[in-house]
Amino acid sequence: MMKRNRISAFIAIVALGYTLAMPALDASPGKKTQPTISLTATISNPTLLAGKTNTTFLRISLDGATLSTEASRPPINVAIVIDKSSSMSGQRIEQAKLAAIAAVERLRDNDIVSIVLYDSAIEVLVPSTKATDRAGIVQKLRAVQVGSNTALFAGVAAGAAEIRKFIDRGNINRVILLSDGQANVGPSSPNELADLGRSLAKENISVSTLGIGEGYNEDLMMQLAATSSGNHVFIEDEASLVAIFNREFDTLMSIVASDIQVQVALPNHVRPVRVLGTEARIDGRDIFIPLTQLYSGQNRYFIIELEIDSCEDGSHLPIANVSAAFTSTMTEQRETRSVEVLSRFTSSLAEVESETDLETLAYATVLVTTERNRLATALRDAGKVDEAKDLLRINGEELLKCSEACEAKNIVVVVPILNANSVANGLQESEIADDAKWKYGRKRMVEFQNRNVQQQVYDGLDNETTPSNSNIRK
Amino acid sequence: MPRRLLLAILMLIAAPMVILGWLSVRSLKSEEVIAKQRLISVFEQQLITQQLPLKELLEGYKQRLAAEVAGLEGEDLLNIVRKLERDDPVVKGCVLVTANGPVAHPSQPLSDDPKDLNRYAALVALAANRPTFLRNEKGTMSSSRRQSSALEMTPSALANESIDPVWQTWFRDQGMQLVLWFPQMDGDALGIVLERSRWIADVIGALPTTPSIDSSLSKNVPLSPGYSEIVDEQQKAIYRWGNRGDGDLPLIAEASAGVPLSNWALHYHGDVTQLLPNQASTVVLWSVIATSAVFVAIGAYVVTSMQRQMKLASDQVSFAGQVSHELRTPLTNIRLYVDLAKSDLADSESEALTSIVTPRLEVISQECERLTDLVSGVLDFVRGDQAAKRLRLRAGIADEWIDKILEPFIPGFAASGIKVERIREASQSIVLDEDILRIVLVNLLGNVDKYAASGKYVLIRSSIENNKLMVRVRDHGPGIPIRYRRHIFKPFTRLNHAIEAPSGTGIGLSIAQSAAKRHGGSLVLEPCAPPGACFLLSLPLDRDVQAIRVKTMKGASS
Predict the structure, then answer these.
(1) Within B71-113, where are the H helices?
(2) Out of A151, A161, A192, whose CB is closest to B197?
(3) Any CB–CB contact under 8 A between B87 and chain A?
(4) Of A4, A39, A51, B127, which alpha carbon lies 20 to 30 A from A311's?
């Protein structure tokens, strides 16, 4: 049963990862001078029905340029925060040490690194320092032993404090948290950690959370990562820890822009309804979306649901003015991009339907169904298994329908992601009732939701290092 | 050695040791309490010092935010408020309340996002619950003092004058939230809700970290025996630092986290017993052991010296007994030959020789008798009560017996210049053991001759009172010091052990007293006005004597 489960989830994830990379690959050859970021904004209905209040989805898309080589990468400032509570004893702490050692050995002299350990208390093993004495750091890491409780909040706080010592907003500032347990000393609710992540994001510090095994609090770990736009990964088997850590550092070293501030200004006839999934601040008709970084080749998009007041037939009206300010890691310069989204109003319903931007709608559908997927998790938590299953079934059908529509119109770029999501929802539907699988299933589900929302560039089910998966691939 | 005596001595040693032990345990306990108190206050002081970085941290927020909003009004202020909300990591949200009530910021959210709606509702609720002094009806100033000074100032001067921001604690969502209120010039008030998770993170950063194991080892710094904690308003631990040894330890000291975190507390947990210095108890323990050893040594010394003294005393007694025993045979011979000499003289024709020698032989005979009494007294004493002889009761007149006993002393008294006064009030015929009377009186009179000659006076008064013969011997000598009065009847007690002191065995009065007791009577030292001493011998007559005789006969036969 377990194997089957893994197979399906794996397919979904591989497909997902593939699609995420697609737009970037498409975009890069088209342009002569390769900009760090290209900003595009589209709405699902470029042609709107006149004389009626319309609801549409605005998609803001940031495409990171593909870095040619790692050699020219900017320095990174990273704090590795490792849980050394008693549950980590044995293979986990050993693998964590190996992973951290491997990561440290990848650093360069002008990178900044700090290592924080926590159990019930905090131990700053390596205070924030230039990574020149990597051998010394590795030696310190090798001596680490496990303790007892889990002061997760303080651990992250201490990691962030180490980052802050040499912080540079334009640089890459990352806390990597590795934990397998529930926070039981200090603030320990997902909301509190989400608040911390939100605050850190304002300083352009992101937190990646790597959860090991079945014991950690996935809501807490996911929210911390989501609010600070870090990665969240569920590591089922500690044997893959080194590989995951490597991937985390791969992405960290491939960042093309940091300290990104997306701003959407809406005209008076447009009302913001909600921002799907992502952390955003809606202040009247201004929407601010903070993003700590964009990775090489990453297509990061945001979906905003808008309500547009009824307008006259034939009029052309602006819907949104979207701008993005960021620091390019290559030029180390602050840059801005901006685009304006317009729409045309018509009284012909057929015209509205034919002009629908299916690609934008497909991405919106992914996030809308993800929101529903979150609701299904909450329903399952509340014991309403049947309602959760219903939601997942609806999700699967809707995604499939959207996929078919896109395929019919030959918009193939979104088909894999829609299908992958449809399959994932279907799989979750079939397994959500099983109590024995729920512990892992929930972690996988939360990770899946976050990956959809964040368009995370890598995932925890690593096929190359997990033997069971690599066998399955063939 | 008698078992009871040994027990008594053991008790004597044991009792102080027990008391000492008890006292030292008590003092140890009280010392422990004091040390504990001291320790607690030390830890409290340490905790209080931790208030400072927290205060600095929060004061830092206050100064920084005050600088951001200083002197701004209207749209400028709103813009900066929006920017703070968006970009400042410490700021969670802001609320701007106008003097006459309405909330100027935030505005009702346009979106349907429940998070936005919740935040808006919370901020409006906060505005309604702002500190009362900010709700000045006139809407001008937070205090009348400022109001009066405002009248004299130009608006620009006013803008430059900073009005102190005020902290407010507000319970919402996850717990206590910190709100900074900035009273504005025009009576408006700006409330900034700090990001709880952020200031908690900074609070953690402001507090000490736990030293890493290898650094503490290399510096050879002993690890703190306990750990400190900061706890929130629900007494939930927020952060712990100090000892890395885990497991929960009892709380021993606490202090408030200081304004505005007054609802939070700093705790120190530790094992007090482990923290208390052990030297104190070991010192006390050793001193107790040392004192006990001293006590045992003293006890051993006392026991051995008592044994030696008792051996000495018994040696003395047996020596006196042997000597006395050796004296009896020559004495008997002397008396025999004196009697023979007397009978020879009676047969002699020489009238002149007889008249000269007879009185001399008489004296020899009397002195022999006196010596015999002394010797038999010593022997009686040495043999003890069991060997007490039967009373030899005879009828006679007490005054006559006493005069006869006194007679041999007259020449000696005369030689020493002692005036003898004799009061005779016992002229009745009585039944008595004359030997007893003689043993006692010879002893008392001998003592007067030996020790009280300086008084130059002796009174011998005999009387019969309540069917008892009372004989008082009073001298004007140096008397008996009070502290010796209880001891003079004990054997081998001598008041003056000096070489030049008059000779004596030290058992005279003991013999006298035991003789009087043998007769059912008593010999006591009677209180009298100085100078001198007064001894009273009282001997029961008739019936008592009969009873005693019966008793002694029984004792002898059994």
Answers:
(1) 74-87
(2) A192
(3) yes
(4) A39
Helix axis angle, A435-454 to A358-381, nearest 10°? 150
CA pair distance A99, A176, nearest whole angstrom:
12
What whole-number percentage of chain B has pLDDT above 70? 82
Residue B130: φ, ψ to 5°: -70, 160
Distance CA A341, CA A57 (A): 12
- Whether the CB of B107 is below 8 Å from some CB of chain A: the reply is yes
Q: What is the pLDDT along chain A (474 residues), one digit of tens a residue?
A: 444 444 444 444 433 433 333 333 333 343 345 677 899 999 998 999 888 888 999 999 999 888 766 667 788 899 999 998 888 888 889 889 999 999 898 888 889 999 998 888 888 889 998 888 888 888 888 888 777 778 889 899 999 999 999 888 778 899 999 998 778 788 888 999 999 999 999 999 999 999 988 888 899 999 999 999 999 999 888 888 888 888 898 888 888 898 999 999 999 999 999 998 888 888 889 999 999 999 888 889 999 999 999 888 888 889 999 999 998 888 888 899 999 999 999 988 888 888 889 999 999 999 999 999 999 999 999 999 999 999 999 999 999 999 999 999 888 888 998 999 999 999 999 888 888 888 888 998 998 999 888 888 887 654 332 222 222 222
Inter-CA distances, A421 with A63, A397, B257, Å? 22, 10, 50
Q: Which residues of chain B does A148 touch, with a Cβ-Cβ cutoff of 8 Å?
A: 246-247
Structure tokens of A18? 């593939």
Strands B166-172 vs B103-105: parallel, antiparallel or unpaired: unpaired
Please name the residue that has the structure tokens 């009174």.
Answer: B459
Angle between helices B74-87 and B3-69 (to 10 degrees): 130
Residue-wise pLDDT for A258-288, tens only, equals 899 999 999 999 999 999 888 888 888 999 9
What's the pLDDT score for residue B285?
78
CA distance linking residue B556 with residue B386, whole number of Å: 8
Using DSSP, state whether A366 is helix, strand or coil: helix
Interface test with B, best of A124, A141, A164, A202 (most B CBs within 10 A): A202
| Residue labelled with tokens 């018994």 | B314
In whole angstroms, what is the distance from residue B119 CA to residue B87 CA? 17
Residue identified by tokens 């003395």 is B316
Q: Which two tokens stand for residue A344?
A: 């045309």
Residue B320 pLDDT greater than 90, yes or no? no
Give Cα separations from B501 to A84, A115, B7, B531 (angstroms).
95, 98, 37, 20
Measured between CA atoms, the residue of chain A closest to residue B245 is A147
Torsion of CA B257, B263, B264, B267, to 10 degrees: 80
CA dihedral B537, B541, B543, B544 (to 10 degrees): 10
Please report which helix (H) or strand (E) contains residue A305, including its range.
strand A299-308
On whether the CB atoms of residues A450 and A222 are closer than 8 A, the answer is yes
Q: Look-up: residue for tokens 């850590």?
A: A245
The tokens for B188 are: 């408006």
Q: Rg (Cα) of chain A, in Å, rounded?
A: 22
Q: Which of these, B162, B156, B126, lies nearest to B142 by C-alpha position? A: B162
